[in-house]
Structure formats: C-alpha cells, structure tokens
C-alpha cells in the first residue's frame, strides 16, 4: 500500500512537497568605477531612491558642497518609484554627472 492509499484510508489528505530552495542564477562580479582625482569643477549627482527623508538629506548635502566645495556642482536625480530599476535616472546621471551618490534617507 502506498502513502496516498494509507493517507486516504486514515481520512487524511495527501500532498506532495517540493524543494523550495530553487536554483540561483550565476552572477559575475564587476569592478568598481575608477575614482576621480578631484571634484573641482565636476558635477556630483545625488540619486534620490525615494526613501523617507531623502529630500532633506539631498538639501543638506547640497548645502555642504556649496559651503565647502563651491566649484562642485550638485544635481538631484529622482527615481520614478522606490524599489524599481529606473534606466532614465541612470541615463541622466551618466550624461550630467561625473560622480554619483545614491541616497536612501532615514
């Protein structure tokens, strides 16, 4: 007698269990972008990842750059929505910025 027959005779529903672990995709590492020698005359893009408090953080960091590194231009780039890839925001950073900082607020 197999398990289904004995379970049915005992009045218990039989079910099949699957391995939930799955198979992760292969991932290849990437090197980090090269560092800039200096920031003078460069543009730093702040990526707003749309977390709470990020706008305040961008304002504070922009003010710090204006006070401490006045030759550095800052630009805020806001993602369309949180937790979703935004190719347009990344393209804007690539075209307008020399460096980028992703901000997640508080």
Q: Main beta sheet: strand number and arrangement?
A: 3 strands, parallel
What is the CA-CA span between the terminal residues? 60 Å
The strands making up the biggest β-sheet line up spatially as: 2-1-3
The coarse silhouette is: elongated
As a percent range, the share of helical residues equals 25-40%
Gyration radius from CA atoms, angstroms: 26 Å
Q: Give helix and strand order, one letter per element, not per position.
A: HEHEHE
Question: What's the helix count?
Answer: 3
Structural class: alpha/beta
Strand percentage:
15-25%
Query: Please, what is the average pLDDT?
Result: 88
Features:
3 strands, 106 residues, 30% helix, single chain, 16% strand, alpha/beta
Task: Give a brief description.
The chain is an alpha/beta fold.
Commentary on this structure:
With 106 residues, this protein is α/β, with parallel strands linked by helices. It has a domain at 37-106. Helix content is 30%, strand content 16%. It has helices at 3-9, 54-68, 87-96, and strands spanning 43-48, 73-78, 99-103. The chain has a 3-stranded parallel beta sheet, with helices on both faces. The longest helix has 15 residues, at 54-68. It starts with a helix and ends with a strand.
SSE blueprint and pairings:
Layout: H1 3-9, E1 43-48, H2 54-68, E2 73-78, H3 87-96, E3 99-103
Parallel strand pairs: 1-2, 1-3
């Amino acid at each position: 007698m197999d398990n289904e027959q004995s379970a049915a005779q005992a009045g218990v529903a039989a079910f099949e269990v699957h391995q939930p672990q799955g198979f992760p995709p292969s991932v290849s590492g990437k090197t980090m972008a090269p560092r800039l020698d200096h920031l003078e005359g460069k543009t730093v893009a702040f990526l707003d990842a749309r977390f709470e408090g990020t706008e305040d953080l961008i304002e504070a960091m922009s003010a710090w750059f204006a006070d401490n590194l006045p030759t550095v231009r800052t630009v805020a780039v806001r993602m369309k929505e949180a937790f979703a890839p935004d190719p347009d925001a990344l393209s804007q950073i690539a075209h307008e910025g020399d460096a980028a900082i992703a901000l997640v607020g508080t």
